[in-house]
Batch of 2 targets.
Target 1
Amino acid sequence: MFQLVEGLVKEKILELLKKKTYVSGSELSRKFNLSRTAVWKHIKALRRKGYVVEAKPRQGYRLVKTPDLLLPVEIKAELKTKIFGKKIFHFNEVTSTQEVAKKLATQGFEEGTVVVAEKQSKGKGRVGREWVSPLGGVWLSIILKPNILPHQAQKITLVVAVAVANVIRRLYGLDAKIKWPNDVLIDKKKVCGILVEASGEVDRLNYMVVGVGVNLNVNPATVESKLVKTATSISEILGREVSKVEFTREFLVEFEKLYKLFGSGGFNQILEEWKKLSETLGCKVKIVSQNEVFVGEALDVDEEGFLLVKLPNGFVKKVVSGDVYVRKV
Ligand code: BTN
């Protein structure tokens, strides 16, 4: 309880610092019923978080710089969503936001709860692979409780990919594409990976955790791994760093919009958008799944989100999961 109140006071102080050029110590102590020492303690705590707050005798405190960290108070400012991001957990470093979000989901945290981290020490990629997550990226997981059956979870992965691609296109004017099912690529290099994990029984879904990792301001060479052979990042392409907070806010808005559309029966509309953004359809592909490797032509994605591949013998095979490699013809 004490912690929460402390946090709230800090948020209120920050709000005021953002509104006015100088805020005097006496104004802060009067407004929030704090001693001058307590005010100073809060200012020091803000500085420790990365805010640059100048203190001038007789004038007071001035906010000089806001850090581009995924702090809940920054993401929530002007966040135009109804449910996504109403509750945000932030970590400077965590093993995996996915693991934290799953724990929160089992504790009953509501749909739309978000977990973000500046850095992950054990980031998780698809099929248990490692996901390298240094400072500079957006590493985020969100709890969902959609009214679908577990085998329909695949559809959500396509919805997330469309949301990420749309935001990259809109904010930075870059030609983001999607490789089935949900890698977001720019110039054929991976800029974002999406991991969707579901918990439930065959006929009942308890919750889903959607993990999104976006290379915003990272050096691509530092995130390449066995999983990601060729990576890119927004900062590398644009030649400048971009705001992680702005990206996160826009993503939550876009994803919530598409998720609502999905919930009201609009999956086909989203699938059409996915197809327009697809880097896979119409290409010769090699599919590497758990049990087999085969080649063919990526024909279409069906209404469940599965990839339809035409084999050299003319048969059409439904691909439920696996890695897709687009081949040069
Ligand atoms: C992939 O392409 O293999 C999926 C990568 C997903 C990475 C994100 S980063 C945020 C969330 N936390 C994790 O540990 N993984 C996902």
Note: The first helix runs from residue 2 to 19.
Target 2
Amino acid sequence: MVRLCVICNKERAIVKRPKTGQQVCKGCFYYVFETEIHNTIIDSKLFKKDEKVAIAASGGKDSTVLAHVMKLLNERYQYGLELFLLSIDEGITGYRDDSLETVKRNQQQYDLPLKIVSYSELYGWSMDQIVKEVGLKNNCTFCGVFRRQALDRGAVMLDVDHIITGHNADDIAETVLMNILRGDVGRLQRCTEICTTGDGCIRRSKPFKYTYEKEIVMYAYFKKLDYFSTECIYSPNSYRGHARTFLKDLEAIRPSAIIDIIHSGEAFEIKKEVKLPTQGVCKRCGYMSSNELCKACVLLEGLNRGLPK
Ligand code: SF4
Ligand code: ZN
Ligand code: ZN
């Protein structure tokens, strides 16, 4: 017997939605996937009319789907946004050079202006050189700190004050779990916010906050989007890896676990008496920092002195 789509009741159901378990046809899957993201954008008043927005683009599935969906929603619902692609070149031979080729093709496919900023030009060090110095243990710490600043600096070069990233529901649930396990109250409070603003006035948003990774993969697959799926040669952050494995196990038992964890994070409140670090600016480079020097400057100083460890 042919099973019909539970939404339109006309077409044959060919997808079981990972998020809800509903059996739907391809057309309805696209429609609900896109509409849920649109609803998230509208409910949280993410954009202002005529805003210039940079899409952080790595060539991976999340940012490729983000570029595709943002262009589509911007036209369908007339958000009036001016969209850009912003890519970071960490300088990882055999990984980032290939994925940047994907971003360049995406630029053609979506007809969006592209800006690439590299660690070498910003910091005088590529990740290849950093790994030669520090080995494969703390490389992701350097990379993560440098990427955050690099995106902000790229946004300034593009003259945009809003960056959107492809972080999905799974990423956010993982971050909630990691912050609980580390006891990092300050981050736990911030990590579920859909939009954050640092002192640099550049807003960062996550339109995929409630979008399941499995659905992003399905969407990219059915739409035959051009993305890069190789993992970084310098191995992923292992602590996040543990949280990820745990989350996947939970999802297998109960798919709503991902959203439930995000909702728990959102409901989290800190007592007024608890003191949190105050935000200032880095004395050396002016980037936001809760210490005298920002993390990037501390790491760079170590690198330049030859004392990275
Ligand atoms: Fe950078 Fe680590 Fe990610 Fe590779 S895995 S891109 S080194 S943060
Ligand atoms: Zn349908
Ligand atoms: Zn600094």
Note: The CA atoms of residues 253 and 288 lie 41 Å apart.
